[in-house]
Write a structure and sequence with these properties.
This protein has 2 domains: 51 residues, Homeodomain-like (Arc Repressor Mutant, subunit A, Orthogonal Bundle); 131 residues, Tetracycline Repressor, domain 2 (Orthogonal Bundle), CATH 1.10.357. Helices cover 68% and strands 0% of the residues. The longest helix has 28 residues. The model has no long low-confidence stretch (mean pLDDT 86).
């Protein structure tokens, strides 16, 4: 018997199933046929929502990046804290190991996917950091003209540390915080 679901519910079901299979079998070994079979729908229905496996994966990256960036939105809304306080209170990690995304983006064979995710998170964080820096500039906390360049540097400049395999999460966070405070003269 055919089960009709709300399009957003069905889309998310396909995406969640794909993530599960990508995590279990790897991206390369998972086909749209495998995903459709696991969801219990025709392959054509998967293509109705996602024109290709790559598009499906891009949607997963987009969705996970939104989840990770959402954790920083509260900093923009709280205009009582100084920029230094925001930096000192940044979460040391934004990812939890038991989410549907973690196995896909953190498996040993999935380094390429993690790097893609990192770039997408950076892309989404820059406007947020730009707003924080603009507010800090208006309060007289920082003294530079090119807020956009500073925001890009603050966000993308962290990647070398964040992607280093030889540092603990605590070391990464400490180094990033200390450098941001130094670089922004806070």
């Amino acid at each position: 018997m055919r089960v009709t679901k709300d399009p957003e519910v069905r889309r998310q079901e396909i995406l969640d199933t794909a993530l599960k299979l990508f995590g279990e079998n790897g991206y390369e070994k998972t086909s749209i046929t495998d995903i459709a079979k696991a969801v219990g729908v025709a392959q054509g229905l998967c293509y109705r929502y996602f024109p290709s496996k790559e598009a499906l994966f891009d949607s997963a990256i987009e969705q996970y990046a939104d989840v990770l960036v959402e954790q920083f939105v509260s900093f923009e809304k709280d205009d009582h804290k100084t920029l230094r306080q925001i930096i000192e209170n940044m979460p040391s990690t934004t990812e939890e190991r038991d989410t549907k995304y973690y196995a896909v983006f953190h498996g040993a064979e999935n380094r390429k996917f993690h790097d893609q995710l990192s770039l997408k998170v950076c892309e989404k964080l820059v406007p947020l950091v730009e707003k924080l820096l603009q507010r800090a500039k208006q309060k007289g906390e920082v003294q530079f003209d090119d807020v956009q360049a500073a925001a890009m540097f603050c966000v993308y400049g962290q990647l070398g540390i964040l992607l280093a395999d030889d540092l603990t999460q605590e070391d990464k966070s400490k180094r990033i915080r200390e450098f941001l405070i130094f670089a922004l003269h806070l």
